[in-house]
Amino acid sequence: MAFEAEGKLYKKFDTVQVTDKFKKREFVIEMEDGAYSQIVKFQLTQNNCDKLDPYNEGDMMKVTFSLRGREYTKDDKTSYFTNLDAWRLDKAGETVAAAPPAANQNFPSVEPAAKTSTETASMDDDLPF
């Protein structure tokens, strides 16, 4: 499920290479929420890290993100983590339609089948069944 948040880019951090195969970049936006503004941290991962480059602190932006959670156990102590994984950044006020990224899905494109003469004839029939 995709979520959206809009606000001012409050702080952006450098990309961090966490492991040989994983990198992330965090940033914070300030969202107006009545009398109190909310300071919310997001992360970009892998190839998405560069999407923050065109933005400067103070810029208004819209973040499209997924909510991710996981459990971590070490020394018989379990902790729970929640990440806001951003995958799309837009300047505030811009609207561009896009689907969320599909995890490991490689579906071939499918063209609609041509209608047969039987299907075309039945479409002209005004019977409801």
Written account of the structure:
With 129 residues, the chain is mainly beta. The protein is built from one helix and six strands; from the N terminus they run E-E-E-E-E-E-H. The protein has one helix at 117-124, and strands spanning 2-12, 16-17, 23-31, 38-45, 60-74, 77-91. Strands 1, 2, 3, 4, 5 and 6 form a six-stranded antiparallel sheet that branches. It is globular, with a radius of gyration of 22 Å. The two termini are 37 Å apart. Mean pLDDT is 82; it is low at 104-111.
| Low-confidence parts | 104-111
Q: Please count the beta strands (DSSP E, at least 2 residues each).
A: 6
Could you report the average pLDDT, rounded to the nearest whole number? 82
* Estimated structural class: mainly beta
Query: Main sheet, how many strands, which sense, barrel?
Result: 6 strands, antiparallel
- Helix tally equals 1
Give helix and strand order, one letter per element, not per position: EEEEEEH
Shape by Cα distribution: globular
Query: How much is the radius of gyration in Å?
Result: 22 Å
Strand content: over 45%
Distance between the termini: 37 Å
Proportion in helices: under 10%
